[in-house]
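RESIDUES AND SHAPES:
===
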Amino acid sequence: MTDKEIIELILKGDKEQFRLIVEQYQQMIFRTCMGYVHNKDDADDLTQEVFIQAYQGLSAFRQEASISTWLYRIAINTSLNRVRKNSRSFIFHQIEDIIGLEKGVKPIIEISDNENPENIMIGEEHRAWVRKALDSLPESQRTAIILSKFDDLSQREISDIMKISEGAVEALIQRAKANLRTRLSSGIKKGIKTVGKSIILFLTM
């Protein structure tokens, strides 16, 4: 069945069909939420909250956009609200939640198995700086870079989700990269590019 057919069944009273929507899109939503909160438990909670909101608001979904675009918008708003709410009391979580060791989460930096312990330790410090720099971005830049690098979305897809032009999306991503480079270079200088040949910083891609 198509998403449209599933939604029609749900709206007609077959509520069990909503599980098909959840199964299809939950990993996508979880990955997006991870881009904002960097912690599996928080991302799990947010993912559940997104689908609750989606279910409750399904009757208002006019299908002018795809359901994935609609879900992305809910995920972004829900994640930003959580970040704003916790901004004063936010504490950095364990590094494994940041770098994407959970199944299906794209890591910010990849390290090969043959890295020596010293390089791994330095690499983990770099990841913490990447996360800190990411969190410091303006909301629009942060959203654009998360959708681009965490979700691998095209500029056209991001423009639909953010309701801005593709040119504006490109500008946000470029400004986000520039800001990230500035923030990272001020804290760890040249270390990002010199520690191990297999370390890949996502903002250089």
In short: Residues 106-205 form a domain with the Arc Repressor Mutant, subunit A fold (CATH 1.10.10.10). The CA atoms of residues 34 and 130 lie 14 Å apart. The chain has a mean pLDDT of 78.
